[in-house]
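lol so apparently i was supposed to do this last week
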Amino acid sequence: MTKTYQTDLNNIIEQVISPLAQKVDETGAFPREALDAMGEAGLLGLVSSSEVGGSGESHRAAAFVVERVANACGSTAMVVCMHYAGAAVIEAFGDREKREAIAKGKHVTTLAFSEYGSRSHFWAPMGTATRKNGGISLNAKKSWVTSAGQSDSYVWSSRPLAADGNSTLWLVPANAEGLSIPKPFDGLGLRGNHSSPVLAEGVVIESKDMLGSDGEGFDLMMKIVLPYFSVMSAAFSVGTMRAMTDKSIKHSAQTELQHLGNSLSNLPTVRAYLARMQIKTDMAHSLLADALDSLEKGRDDAMLRVLEIKAATGELVTEVTDLGMRVCGGAAFRKDSGLERHFRDARASTVMAPTTDMLYDFIGRAICGIPLFE
Ligand SMILES: Cc1cc2nc3c(=O)[nH]c(=O)nc-3n(C[C@H](O)[C@H](O)[C@H](O)COP(=O)(O)OP(=O)(O)OC[C@H]3O[C@@H](n4cnc5c(N)ncnc54)[C@H](O)[C@@H]3O)c2cc1C
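anyway here it is w/ flavin-adenine dinucleotide bound
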């Protein structure tokens, strides 16, 4: 990633994302200003190839951006994370017009995989795709879609049209007739990410909107989406941990115990908690760096690292934000502390698919030589 992007990103975080973070959390407002600024600066076209006007970057740059944004605003980071995950699939299989629009920052996308029927088992959609009047008719009950009603398109999974296999992917325009959002998102954390359910009732798209081939969805989820999503989810966790750790250190140093003439950080117990937060944050950062290295070098352990990194950082961000709430005392409980927001945002990391418990099963299978899916 070039220095220009880092500088642009830093400026946007400082001038747009950070100042709006608390309001986004309080009101649940979609971070449109942040997306507009990122689009304008070319940051939404980060994983688009230079051939269509994008930056031609990959996992490392995407993780870098998501980590930095999560440090300031979890909701914005999750929206950007889902955009890059979807954009990577569109970059591989979408038409040139869409790829150029993404590269120019004029098109925001997201993933619409999770469904009410199969829940976090995203590889097994229950929604259908059938041929109708020369087009394709989609019916589904998607349970969670980040940027629902706000993005320009959905990278959508369904059962295959005719082929064998678990799933087929489609690019669905967000304004397609028959799409509806039955209830707006109102969650514990990531309050501005608009992860609402989306229903599809007889939504008609064109055959050419298929991404990849019929029945190939599972392969694309594993080869494209999972590596991107895992490293970005880990980056989200690292950025959140770093924010919590830094703010906790600052709070402890600045908060006086006036009757003793010193600060919270003069207490050995407080310092020990801060040390644990720092160590866990640095551990997560190092593991993420190794996972990126494994992907870039095509190492044999790359898939294992991809699975490990999401599970490990999901646990660590939960622990670190817990510790931050403890070490900063009642002050952390107040909304204006900026600490409890990271605590709430962090809770999504273990339950976003593949969930941490699911990953323990997958990783256990992988290291015991048992197939992931039987
Ligand atoms: C903020 C947020 C944003 C999201 N954005 C998107 C999005 O943009 N696109 C999208 O497609 N989805 C999205 N999701 C959905 C997410 O990826 C998961 O599918 C969803 O959180 C799972 O919730 P559930 O209630 O369906 O879990 P359930 O599937 O009901 O799981 C309940 C529990 O069972 C456990 N469990 C399930 N299967 C196994 C297993 N095989 N082994 C061990 N334990 C298991 C889980 O770990 C969990 O603890 C989002 C979720 C959140 C919270």
